[in-house]
Amino acid sequence: MPTIDWPADLTPSKATWGLLSNTESFVSPLNRSSQTVERPGARWKATLEFPHMERDKRGRLEGFLAGLSGMAGRVFLWPHSAPVADLAAVPVDATMALDFLSQSYQVNGEVVVNGSLIDYKYLPTKYWPASTLVMRAGEYLGAGGELKIVTADTYSDANGQALIPIAPPFRVAPANLSVVTLNKPTATMMNTSDEYAVSVMPGFISEMVVISLVESFS
Questions:
Q1: Distance (Å, rounded) from C-alpha 188 to C-alpha 213?
Q2: Rounded CA gap, 143 and 147, in Å?
C-alpha cells in the first residue's frame, strides 16, 4: 500500500506531538547505581483531535481513515502546531549555479545538507543568510525523509553555514546536498489501532474524534 499525504483540509482542533525514545536502564543490585543507554529507534507519536463536524467533513475524515485499513496504511503527516518554521531570515534566493573555484553548489535557492554527518544529533547545512538566527528551538525540519525538531537556537556563520542540533538522532544520514525541508516537514505515520469509530448525534453532527498515530520506519 503506497504512503499517502494527510489531507490538507482535515485540520485538527488540537494536535499533540511527542517522542517515544528507545532507552534501556540497568540498576546495580549491589549498590543501586544506575546506567541508561540510548538506542536507535526513537519514534514520533501524535494525537489529533477533531471537533464536532458537519456531514461533509466527517465523511471525508471517515473515508480517509477507512482507506488506511487500520495499522496497514501509512500517511505523511506534519506537525500541525508548527507547519512552517518561523525563520528569522529567508534562505537565499538564487538559481542553480556551480562555482568550480570553491566548489559551492546552490540548489534552487534552498537550504541543503552540507557534507557528511559526524554526529547524528547534528545536521550540517548551508546556503543560509550569513551571521543570522536561522532556526529556533522547537521548530521542525525534514532531511533524508526523517522529521526532526531543533533543540537549540541556531545561528549561521559568516559563510551561511549552520550546524543544527536536532532530535531524535538520524537513523540514516541524509545525502550530501539533499534539500532540507522547512515547509511542512513530514514523518511517515501509522494508526496505533486497527479500529476507529465516529459517533453521530441528531442533525448529522459528529462528536469529538481522536486519532492516535505513531511513526513507522523499516
A1: 10
A2: 7
Q: Taking the complete model, does pTM exceed 0.70, yes or no?
A: yes
Q: Are residues 195 and 162 in the same domain?
A: no
Q: What is the pLDDT of residues 96-125, one digit of tens each?
A: 333 434 434 444 468 999 999 999 999 999
Spell out the residues 6+ positions from residue 25 whose beta carbon is closer than 8 angstroms to its own: 34, 35, 36, 37
- Determine the straight-line distance between the first and last CA of the chain, rounded to whole angstroms: 14
Q: Do 147 and 197 share a domain, yes or no?
A: no
Choose among 47, 59, 49: nearest CA to 209. Answer: 49
CA distances from 148 to 35, 155, 180, 182 (A): 26, 17, 11, 10
Residue 208 domain boundaries: 4-80+187-215
Q: 55-78 pLDDT, tens per residue?
A: 888 889 989 999 999 999 999 999
